[in-house]
Amino acid sequence: MxxxxxxxxxxxSITLILSVIFYMAENYSHIIGNFYFxxxxxxxxxxxxxFVNWLIKKKRKKPTT
Length: 65
Description:
By secondary structure, the chain is mainly α. It has helices at 3-26, 28-31, 35-59.
């Protein structure tokens, strides 16, 4: 896989996580009761992080001995 694509995916995942955090900070009083939004934001960012890590591991070549 192209390293530039992996870099863009990492930047995208960080941007999405930060946008969720800032959205929650701005609308905290409206969101605090919305449990499903908090769980969805957590699992969404976690699965995006795991997907990017899986792509990085897939990209690495096994060392030849």
